[in-house]
Amino acid sequence: MTDPVNPSHYKGDVECIDALRAALTPEEFQGYLKGTAIAYLWRLGKKDAPEQEARKALWYVAWLAGQDPR
User: How far apart are the first and last CA of the chain?
Assistant: First the structure.
């Protein structure tokens, strides 16, 4: 079963989110997370199913709350 929120093509030897976190300052990473969550909510229901878009936004909000959602 594939995970539409954190699909396998985002993963490899290093997962993309981990590379981003390593490359950015903590403040920049927080901004990335916040902006990405806002983007998913902004287009809610316009690309994928609204529930899927909401789960994607929550994934990034979990990071903002200090919880690794994986």
Answer: 15
Distance CA 36, CA 38 (A): 5
Half-sphere exposure of 28 (CA within 13 A, CB side): 8
| Residue 10 one-letter amino acid | Y
pTM of the model: 0.80
Which is nearest to 65 in space by CA: 57, 19, 54, 12?
Answer: 57
DSSP one-letter string for 11-33: -SSS-HHHHHHHHS-HHHHHHHH
Span 10-62, pLDDT tens digits: 667 899 999 999 999 999 999 999 999 999 999 998 988 999 999 999 999 99
